[in-house]
């Protein structure tokens, strides 16, 4: 009985850690373009453990809206650290900078930073705004 419980537990768990994005080899789940710019790559992992990858946060946002995916369905969202694009960070921990002068693949204009002080400096430099959360970014996108 214990063995059956352990097997069931293992079968029901999934890995919600960030999955590597293979630049130039994977397509954006939103627009279908090949993901090539590491600074803006992002992904989400569902409550079922499925990973969807995107070339820009705007593609991720529009995909979630088009598919009516709730925050409970999307377990984790990871974004590339603008300064260290090989590192994906939890969007809830990221400093998010939104601005017209931030040139991302789909013109979403969002850069994510692990270091909030660096995000603030980048926001000033690019005449952009530092958002306080992913929730605020969703509101900004919904308004435009």
UniProtKB/TrEMBL annotation:
InterPro entries: N2O_reductase_NosL. It holds the Pfam family NosL. PANTHER family: HTH-TYPE TRANSCRIPTIONAL REPRESSOR YCNK (PTHR41247). This is NosL. It comes from Prevotella denticola CRIS 18C-A.
């Amino acid at each position: 009985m214990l063995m059956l419980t352990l097997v069931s537990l293992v079968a029901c768990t999934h890995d919600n850690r960030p999955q590597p994005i293979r630049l130039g080899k994977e397509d954006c789940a939103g627009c279908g373009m090949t993901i090539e710019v590491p600074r803006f790559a992002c992904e989400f992992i569902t409550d079922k453990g499925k990973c969807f990858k995107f070339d820009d946060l705007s593609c991720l946002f529009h995909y979630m809206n088009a598919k009516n995916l709730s925050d409970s369905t999307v377990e984790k969202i990871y974004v590339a650290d603008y300064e260290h694009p090989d590192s994906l960070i939890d969007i809830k921990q990221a400093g998010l900078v939104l601005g017209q002068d931030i040139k991302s693949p789909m013109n979403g204009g969002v850069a994510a930073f692990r270091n909030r002080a660096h995000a603030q400096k980048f926001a000033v430099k690019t005449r952009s705004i530092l958002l306080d959360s992913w929730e605020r970014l969703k509101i900004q996108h919904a308004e435009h």
